[in-house]
Design brief:
The protein has a three-stranded parallel sheet, with helices on one face. It contains three helices and three strands, in the order βαβαβα. The N and C termini lie close together (about 5 Å). By secondary structure, the protein is an alpha/beta fold. The chain has helices at about 30-45, 65-70, 90-95, and strands at about 15-20, 50-55, 75-80. Helices cover about 35% and strands about 15% of the residues.
Length: about 100
């Protein structure tokens, strides 16, 4: 299942925190990144990855990669764009069942 959503094999046994949302300001991806970073740093979590799946929008969007870089955790980011041949429901189910 993890291969189907495009995760590299070296993270299959890691703790993955996921977020599937449109990249819009109202979705507050900045807070998602900030709280992930706070959790990792204050709890000493060394095997967690942040899986963020977004679809491009025509609106202003967050620079998720830049936010993770600011938190010095860009090496723990799994930024995924949805597969166009998969429905939204199939994408969410793949993330839940992983």
């Amino acid at each position: 299942m993890l291969q189907q959503i495009g995760l590299p094999s070296d993270v299959h046994d890691k703790f993955i925190v996921g977020c599937v949302a449109r990249n819009q300001s109202r979705k507050r991806l900045d807070l998602t990144v900030r709280h992930f970073a706070e959790w990792v740093k204050t709890r000493g979590v060394d095997d967690a990855w942040h899986y963020i799946q977004t679809a491009p929008t025509s609106e202003a969007a967050y620079d998720v990669r830049g936010l993770m870089k600011y938190e010095q955790l860009e090496h723990r980011l799994l930024l995924v764009r949805p597969a166009l041949r998969r429905t939204f429901t199939e994408t969410v189910q793949a993330g839940v069942l992983a």
